Structure formats: structure tokens, C-alpha cells
Amino acid sequence: MSDTTLTEEELDTLLDGVSTGSVDTNGDTAAKGQAISFNFKEQYNILLGKMPRLGRIFDSFLKNLSASVENLMDTEAEITLAQLGTSKYGEFMRSLPEPAHINTLEISPLHTSALAVLEPRLLYILVDKYFGGQGGTHGLEEGRDLTLTERRIADQLLALLVEDFQAAWQIVDKIGFTHRATDTVPDTVQVMSANEVIVVAMFQITLGGASGNVRFALPYSLLEHYRSTLEARAQTEKIEVDQVWQQGLATELNRASVNATGKIEGLSMKLSELLSLNVGDVVPFEMPSLISLDVEHIPIFKGTLGSSNGRNAVRIREFTDMTQH
Q1: For labeling, which of 49, 85, 221, 324 is most exposed (least CB within 10 Å)?
Q2: What are the extents of the domains in the chain?
Q3: Cα gap 114→165, rounded to integer Å
Q4: In this structure, is the dihedral angle defined by the CA atoms of residues 32, 34, 38 and 40, taken in order, positive or negative?
Q5: What does 187-244 look like in DSSP terms, one character per residue?
Q6: How far apart are CA 196 and CA 20, in angstroms?
Q7: Among candidates 113, 112, 88, 116, which has minimal Cα distance to 102?
Q8: Torsions phi, psi of 304, nearest 5?
Q9: 38-234, what's its fold?
Q10: In what side-by-side order are the strands of the sheet with 311-319?
Q11: Helix, strand, coil share (%) of the chain residues, nearest 5
């Protein structure tokens, strides 16, 4: 069987063609004997694996959202990334249950849209927990509209979702996510063409043992726009400083002991002169104006030799030029 795996260069060319529309993804039938099975979704998922900074965005979002939900609901919250993949917009909308809290978010400065969807089960858990219940395992009745209380609590969670999601993307660029509309029926939400490829991230929120999901649907064009940044390896990113660790390290360094030596420059002499020296001989040399003060054999300061409280001492006059060593 021939190898149909695309090289990285071929994959990049294909994705550019899909984005510009020059490659048809509607599955037209090829000539007999020439058809090759090709999974566009699989190739998009392979590319997602090449974007390590996207994972860092989601990690930051989960950390911040957990704290936000705990403050809102006054209970411990566990939030995980349950699924991450790609889909066509039409397929994604058909997979949504009813009623759902479907929110259109405008992405600036790209002038495109994303969706944030709170699923019915999560809405029931939020309302039940908000009023002191245990969350239960129920869902909302299919087809009915959301009550005013359900909408109000859902809107509060949505505000936290948008704020934390936007904050997480700041490691890439100053991207804004602005809430524009809310619907409960998937068929009424048309923000993209049915065949547009989207990235779907599903987050599971667990409150007191009961779990529900939030789904983000992002246009693939968002990832394409910041592709080079998202593909950057982690070592190129700014390292987050742990203040506690930094303080502890500084304290231990300040307690460390080092050897400091005042070094007087020597003089040159012939080997015959050295061999002729005896105990008691005096070797004259000129005292330099500045002597070197070495720390662990590394010249750090220059100073003048003198005495203090009956002991030899060095008064520091200047730093040593380290570029010369």
C-alpha cells in the first residue's frame, strides 16, 4: 500500500488552500481508480498538535476560570479540558442540545466570530447549586425556553468565561472577545458558513460531584492568523516568576559563604635569582596603587591596601572590568 501521509510542507500547502477556498473540501467524486481516502479532520488535528502555545492558553484559562467559578458559586470547582478537535460549523451546530445558552462573541481585531455554549445539564447544575442544592443528575426539558433565573445565572458565568478566556489569549496578542448575542435554538445561529472549519474546545465543569460542559467554537482562521506564534516552542516564552521561590533563593544566597582574597601583583625574576634565594632574604618590589580583591578566584573589586582596627584591610575603590577576564 502506498504511503498517503502528507509531509509538513504538503500539509501547509493544503491548509493554505482550504483557507483561501482554492481547495474543494466538499468531497467531489474523482475519476474511477483515482480516488484516495483523505480525512481533513485528522490533518487539522495533527496541526493542532504542532501548536504548543495553544495548550498553554487553555491551561491558563482553566486555572483562572476555576477560581472565578468557585467565587461565583461559593463551592469547590474542578474544570478540565475534556475534548479538543476540529469540525465543520454545520456539524457542530447540529450536535448541540436544546435548549442551550449559545453566545456569539465578536473577535477583535479580526472581525470574525466565535461561540461559547453552556449546555443544558450545566445550566441545571448551576441553578440547583446556586440555591443550595446538590446539583443532581437532571437536565433541562428538551425544547423549552430558559427561565429568567437560568438566564441570569448563565449570564454571570458567561461574563467570567469571556473575561478569563480573553485574559488567557493575551500571551499571543491583545485579542478581544465581546459578547454580541444569546440564543437558545442552534438553528437560529448563523455566524459562519456551514462548511467553515472551526476548532472546538469542550471544558467540563464539576461542582460537588455533578458535571456539565461548556463548548468554545473558534474559527480556524483565528489559529491561522497567529499560527507562527502558536507554533513557537515553550522555551521562547517569557518565564513566569514564582515569587515565593525567588525570595527563598535570595535568602539562601545571602547566607552563602565565599572566600575573598586581596591579591598584590607579583614581580618577574630569573630562575637563577629564584634559586639563589635564602631564608631572610628581602625581595623588593613596588606597591601597586590598587590591588585586586578576588572572590572565589574571580577578580571583582580593586582597592587600596591599609589597616583597620589593627588588621590589614582593603578599601574598595572600583569594580573590576569583567570583560577583560
Answers
A1: 324
A2: 38-234, 258-264+284-325
A3: 12
A4: negative
A5: GG--SS-TT-EEEEEEEEEEETTEEEEEEEEEEHHHHHHTHHHHTS-GGGSPPPP-HH
A6: 11
A7: 116
A8: -105, 140
A9: Chemotaxis protein chec (3.40.1550)
A10: 260-263, 291-295, 298-308, 311-319
A11: 40, 25, 35
- Alpha carbon distances (Å) from 189 to 100, 125, 159, 206: 12, 25, 20, 27
pLDDT at 76 over 50: yes
Q: Give pLDDT tens digits for 178-233.
A: 999 999 888 889 999 999 999 999 999 998 888 899 999 999 989 889 988 888 76
Higher pLDDT, 242 or 267: 267
CB 192 within 8 A of CB 99: no
Cβ contact 214:202 at 8 Å: yes
The answer to whether the beta carbons of residues 267 and 287 sit under 8 Å apart is: no
